[in-house]
Amino acid sequence: MAYLVNITSRAERDLAHLYGEINAEHSDAALKWYRGLKEAILSLEDNPTRCPATPEKKELRHLLYGHKPHVYRVIFRVLEKQKQVDVLHIRHGARRKLKTSHLT
Questions:
Q1: Could you tell me what percent of the chain has a pLDDT over 70?
Q2: Residues 6+ apart with CB under 8 A from 2
Q3: Residue 102 pLDDT more than 60?
Q4: How far apart are CA 38 and CA 61, in angstroms?
Q5: What is the pTM of this model?
Q6: Distance of CA 78 to the CA centre of its chain
Q7: 72 touches 93 (CB < 8 A)
Q8: Which residues contact residue 56 at a Cβ distance below 8 angstroms, ignoring those fewer than 6 apart?
Q9: If you ran DSSP here, which 8-state letter would residue 86 be given?
Q10: Tens digits of residue pLDDT in 12-29
Q11: What are the two backbone dihedrals, phi and then psi, of residue 32, each rounded to the nearest 5 degrees?
Q12: pLDDT grade, residue 96 (50/70/90)?
């Protein structure tokens, strides 16, 4: 059974910031990469538990997208009873450890 993928407002802001940061509006390669990221996020509807738990908090999972040194982490939680995936945050993989207190 498919899960509903809910992209939170925080994650939407992260995507908008990333779109501008990589200059996707003016680069075909960047736009292709950005669309691939969005497709990867939407693919969580099929099997979100395929992704590992985050090191910061075991209740959260993360999907890694990209190739070093341009790896991004899509941090999300799976709500099994509701069959829903809440995408909480999207960040560069090289950033410092995430403080999760404001995400849950």
A1: 88
A2: 45, 46, 83
A3: no
A4: 17
A5: 0.87
A6: 13
A7: yes
A8: 97, 98, 99, 100
A9: E
A10: 999 999 999 999 999 999
A11: -65, -45
A12: low
Strands 84-92 and 4-7: parallel
Region of residue 56 (phi > 0: left; psi between -120 and 50: alpha; otherwise: beta): alpha
Q: What is the number of residues in the chain?
A: 104
What pLDDT is attached to residue 94? Answer: 65
- DSSP code of residue 42: H
Pairing assessment for the beta strands 72-79 and 84-92 based on DSSP bridges: antiparallel
Residue 77 Cα distances to 4, 88, 104, angstroms: 12, 7, 9
Hey, is 97 helix, strand or coil?
coil
Alpha helical stretches, state H, the chain: 9-21, 28-42
Res. 92 pLDDT band, cuts 50 70 90: confident
Q: At what angle do helices 28-42 and 9-21 cross, to 10 degrees?
A: 160
Largest CA distance in the chain: 42
